[in-house]
Amino acid sequence: MSADWVNDINRMQTKYGVREWINHASPFQLKKYLEFRLDFIKEEYDETKEALITEDAEEVVDGLIDLCVVAIGTLDAMGVNVHKAWDEVLTANMAKEVGVKESRPNPLGLPDLIKPAGWVAPSHAANHGILSSAWSDAIQDRAMAANKARTDILAEHPEINSEWTPDAEERMDIIGQNGNDGLHYESTTIDFTKDSEYIRLYGETKTDNTES
To answer: Is the pTM of this model over 0.85?
Structure first.
């Protein structure tokens, strides 16, 4: 019988290569991973709520456990010390007192917890793992570094024609060989300031005479 959920999830994610993928993920991929995991939690929540409506005890149990698995797994994958984070929240919760919070409805009359004078909120300072590596500034820094690397390569190798585009006959050859309409063949390199993912994050590229 397991006595440590966090360690169980850690072992599972090591077995299936999640940690290896995280170690090589770009900042943009990390952010998309977090979005995916939050969508995953919502999916599990929706399924559990449906099980409540249909009065399916089996699926309620399974759904609630799955919510724990996904939540713990997300924290673990992002390098957060889950045991420490749990202890912070538990300590703060145990410092609360039973009382009545007027702003929170309590139709069942359950024991309610309130924050007494001097209550200290949990702090997760220095325990964010690599979460900040998924924020927009980190994504932009990586994109700009890649774009600079491309510029440096072109400077060292002027023989590379970064502006090459196929003429009409060559374009027809591309279409014939690839079985598509030849879209996205305007350049042989990627300009991160024009890449669709970059634009979704930062908007259209501004020209020198555009107001910032």
So the answer is: no
